[in-house]
Design goal:
- It is a single chain.
- Strand 4 and strand 5 form a beta hairpin.
- The protein is globular, with a radius of gyration of 16 Å.
- The protein has 180 residues and is mostly beta strands.
- The strands form 3 sheets. A 4-stranded antiparallel sheet has the order 4-5-6-7, with no helix packed on it. It has a 4-stranded antiparallel sheet with strand order 8-9-10-11, with no helix packed on it. It has a 3-stranded antiparallel sheet with strand order 1-2-3, with no helix packed on it.
- It has strands at residues 2-3, 28-34, 41-47, 53-60, 66-72, 86-92, 101-105, 111-118, 124-130, 156-162, 168-174.
Length: 180
């Protein structure tokens, strides 16, 4: 999720300092694991640093590792940043708040990853939207060029597949001339 609280409850934090803003959509994403009874906080940390960080979805693999997706404006989130807002994927171990990996996905404009799913073999499937005409699609992908109009507010969908270690298998635009 996203918080605007500098006193958000933390437990074993990877990032223990709130760096977000106080206005809507500008805050810090967080990752929290609560006991199965809901009675205790096992792990809880902020994600990202200065700027806007939003976590939109989470899924677990068979071993209890958690995968979180969202969007960030932070050039110091965890990995290489392209510009604008970037989608991110982060993997957390079954216990603890230090990411196993985190990576950006985006071009020079704006991206968000809104949903993630995992299959029985551990492959990750993500979906979101992008306004970048230089979005990093995969060679041979279904749509390698932006189907809708260019511009920071003209969005098209995308779908991607990643390994459980964060390696990109494919990413493709998915849209038509009217965008989404």
């Amino acid at each position: 999720g996203i918080t605007h609280s500098s006193d958000f409850p933390l437990q074993n934090p990877y990032i223990g300092t709130y760096d977000g803003g106080s206005i809507e959509n500008y805050g810090d994403a967080f990752y929290t694991r609560i006991s199965s009874t809901g009675a205790s906080l096992l792990d809880s940390t902020y994600l990202g640093k200065a700027g806007m960080d939003n976590a939109y979805d989470i899924t677990l693999d068979g071993g209890g590792a958690a995968y979180v997706v969202g969007t960030t404006t932070c050039s110091d989130f965890q990995s290489t940043h392209g510009g604008g807002t970037e989608g991110f994927i982060a993997k957390f171990p079954a216990s603890g708040t230090t990411p196993v990996f985190s990576t950006f996905l985006g071009g020079s404009q704006n991206e968000s990853i809104y949903a993630i799913a995992i299959d029985g073999g551990g492959s990750l499937y993500i979906t979101g939207r992008t306004s970048s005409s230089d979005f990093p699609t995969s060679s041979g992908a279904y749509q390698t060029s932006k189907p809708g109009a260019a511009g920071a507010t003209n969005y098209d969908g995308f779908i991607g597949k990643f390994s459980s270690a964060g390696a990109r298998v494919y990413v493709t635009y998915l849209g038509g001339s009217g965008g989404i």
